[in-house]
Specification:
single chain, alpha/beta, 7-stranded mixed beta sheet, two-stranded parallel ribbon, 13% strand
């Protein structure tokens, strides 16, 4: 089963890499990537049903770190349910450690495999996308992602915007940002309002993509990244009513030419999270 799933995903990656490329200039400024971190249970009970209702795609980044708390976090079987609903399942490591450090970054590959093994057990394919834990990143971790076949990885708004600041982060420019360091344009905090959300999603210019990072809706355990369900519905309805195209991380593959990836200066940098 493991080899079958790996083979199937490899075929998907090959198809995506050989598909016609969409020039960056043709990317609509109303393109939004929806991502959700940490395997919070409300992502299945609140988020997924609303996204299905609206016809939205999204990526759910899964970590085992808090799964023993089955009241507030998903089980592996529930992660598989998200997959069966048509959403992308991404890797968020086993321990949710700080992989910006040299010693931990070098061990990221082991943690990627631990998550992959559990996903295969519940018939979820090997991910192609990763989310940096605590938004920290470093060259050793990037090298591990390359070695283990990951094509995309999302970082935070940092270093452009301080962690916790209710500001607009950088929009993704596929001609400048490396696919293993995709920036977050908006990291949802409790201090968000609909007006701020509008500022985030309207910040992209033609050729750029807005990348949104959410956690629980609500998030009882991690209150500093909580999004109230009523606010989240407002955000999603705004996207729907205003004609935004909402996609998963894996859908960004068609915008990158694997033979001509950007020379992103952050590839040689190390950003250590403060949270």
């Amino acid at each position: 089963m493991y080899n079958m799933l790996r083979t199937g995903m490899a075929a998907l990656i090959v198809l995506s890499l050989t598909a016609p490329r969409l020039p960056a200039a043709q990317i609509s400024a109303k393109t939004v990537v929806l991502t959700f971190d940490d395997a919070v249970k409300s992502q299945l009970t609140v988020v997924a049903p609303l996204l299905k209702e609206l016809g939205f795609q999204a990526t759910f980044f899964i970590s085992q770190r808090w799964m023993k708390d089955t009241e507030n976090f998903l089980t592996w079987e529930q992660v598989a349910e998200l997959h069966r609903m048509g959403f992308e399942i991404g890797n968020h490591s086993w321990t949710h450690s700080d992989f910006s450090k040299a010693e931990t970054g070098a061990k990221l590959g082991e943690e990627l495999q631990m998550v992959e093994k559990e996903l295969v057990r519940v018939r979820v394919p090997k991910p192609v996308s990763f989310a940096w834990c605590g938004n920290g990143f470093g060259p050793e971790g990037i090298e591990q992602l390359r070695r283990h076949g990951y094509s995309l990885a999302r970082r935070g708004m940092q270093p452009e915007v301080p962690y916790g600041a209710v500001q607009v982060g950088p929009a993704l420019d596929v001609t400048k940002h490396h696919p293993l360091l995709i920036p977050t344009t908006g990291d949802a905090y409790p201090g968000w309002s609909l007006e701020h959300f509008k500022k985030v999603v309207t910040s992209a210019k033609p050729g750029e993509v807005v990348v949104l990072q959410f956690h629980g809706v609500p998030d009882v355990t991690h209150s500093w990244v909580n999004t109230p369900p009523e606010n989240f519905r407002q955000y999603m309805v705004y996207l729907k009513r205003n004609g935004y195209r909402t996609i998963a991380m894996r859908d960004l593959l068609r915008y990158y030419d694997p033979l001509q990836l950007p020379d992103d200066p952050l590839l040689k940098s190390r950003f250590t999270p403060t949270q």
